[in-house]
């Protein structure tokens, strides 16, 4: 342990010079915080058998009367293989998700009238039980209309054919009541009041209809049916965007935002999205792709002062739709977090956190213009470019999101009651790329956080030099850092001021709080992440501000209960590898360069790289053991390290041309969007095709094998015989298919087809991934098929 090991460095981000004239970004955060309204929301049964009580007021959720700010991530059980659920839910838990939300997609369960299927991948009850075992709460989104990029929004064909839907029609309500009764039976004994994990029920989705039998009354009817079916939960929610209507007080609106609009019709880059702009007067974050048009302002606009600002559909990725195939970066997603939290969000909810695949059925179950949908989505894949792919593979964005989730887990109770304070100067509009984007949340007693975002997808932001923040509080002003810095293009972060370190005051820090851990004899440790390019400056107690070198050493700044009080400041890269979980019966910090999660056996690890992968643990394990990989144990600063490596497996797919591409037909326009339509089935006869032979026993000794076809074209499909296993709209994102997750083991060579992409196709592709047609009318190419072994290890 070091006692204030100091490195005096030029306080700069992107090279701001010391002593330059400062640009002061000011905000008045001195106003007291009024008490939230109580009793305005009609909750369901909110007391668990052990006495744990959930609640909500007009500002935030509560747990045992204390502020509660959870993280919610969407995972569709019926789009994922049941044998993987236990691990996948624990991966979400390790990523900092505390509530898993899931749609019950009606046509996945009742394809034929009266014949419900709750088996296998459709076993809702088992999924919820496994969520509870993973330490997750659950929100069940019961529809009946879900959207979810599903055929008819999830409503079965036989219902759509026979009666009006999404209204108080007696025939429709009869079948909805039967669906809800089935869901209620599946969840019997699993509701919060029974000691189960189900804390919420979402009714309908994107509901802004106001015709006969529609409107708020229909939502009220659905809630009554749900409660009558035993779906008695503390929280009832509805989506609140795009003019949604609902009975005020009976349900709570939830909101969202996305970094692009794959449901749009433009074939060009969009203007800067509102989701990157702090909101001080509205909860709306741009177009979220509702399927129906509102005719008047919705209920949520009138209810803002009476309901907490909760999120459910902040895009953790984006779907590829036929006409618009957006590909977002990890920063495009993660930069939304300080914006949403700094705008007052008190439930960080994502759609989707885990990708999936549609069940194979006839008719197919995806949303398509051919079945009256607004969008054309792939028949099988529902990848969504999510943090966890359909086969559980971890994407870069998860590591960018997790530091924010750790912050909310440790300090969300402090943040939730704080109110948003508008800076003295704010951008004129989302298109203003010059004025700094920031906000403050404060509690009226001098404590708070600064939220900054200088990242906008596909646009360069101004990098204002010489910036200092000035937060005016009651009786004092906090100005920091001690020297001005430059807000670099792409920067986003959260910095604290007047932050309590177990009784020691941290006046401010230019590093983001991550978590707090009681390390026994090693004392209490507060963990921070340095902001890229900015020296981590800490002003503790009455001492002058000093800069701490990021790394794995502890820096003692005081005492608490006779034990050390220390700071651990991680580099930005280290912070993205941080997990917090239980090993050997106590909470520990884990830094893992590869995918990791916790279960009853210890720390589970997965890697597609057999080369050395490092795991660091604090406090150290007494007797670390690695199973499945060789490990060398050492120490680095306060952390015990384990260097893991596996015997490499060389797997090769044999790829043989089967047929050359024909001439792809022109892409037609039409449908509800009046834009490019996905090809009709007959168009795929123009696809080039190859046979792909996998090595026998490829899975032996491995957790999985990821099949990655490297292609350029319009649409690729993978078949086992005539059974389609997966499909993909080309957008530049790697396409991977887990061999272990396939519905059945292939009995022979697979067939891979690629429909050529026409040069004149009226679709959007990011510039970096649009092929060079070099004068040709179409393009279809397969460069190879790579097999990625997935190695497994366990530390206990």
Set down the secondary structure blueprint:
Elements: E1 23-28, E2 54-56, E3 61-63, E4 66-68, E5 71-74, H1 85-94, E6 99-103, H2 106-109, H3 124-133, E7 137-141, H4 157-162, H5 170-186, E8 198-202, H6 216-228, E9 235-239, E10 252-257, H7 299-303, E11 310-315, E12 324-325, H8 330-334, H9 336-342, E13 348-351, E14 356-357, E15 381-382, H10 396-415, E16 419-421, E17 438-442, E18 448-453, E19 467-473, E20 476-485, E21 492-501, E22 504-509, E23 511-518, E24 524-530, E25 536-540, E26 546-548, E27 554-560, E28 563-570, H11 572-575, E29 578-583, E30 586-592, E31 595-599, E32 602-607, E33 613-618, E34 626-627, E35 630-636, E36 639-645, E37 654-659, E38 669-670, E39 675-676, E40 688-693, E41 704-712, E42 715-720, E43 723-729, E44 737-738, E45 750-755, E46 757-758, E47 764-765, E48 778-779, E49 781-795
Helix pairs in contact: 1-3, 5-6
Any overview of this molecule?
The N terminus is likely disordered. Helix content is 13%, strand content 33%. The protein is built from 11 helices and 49 strands. It starts with 22 loop residues before the first strand and ends with a strand. It has 3 domains: 161 residues, no CATH class; 352 residues, Glycosidases (TIM Barrel), CATH 3.20.20.80; 137 residues, Jelly Rolls (Sandwich), CATH 2.60.120. It has an 8-stranded parallel beta barrel with strand order 5-6-7-8-9-10-11-13, surrounded by 4 helices. Strands 16-17-18-21-22-25-26 form a 7-stranded antiparallel beta sheet, with helices on one face. It is mainly β and 796 residues long.
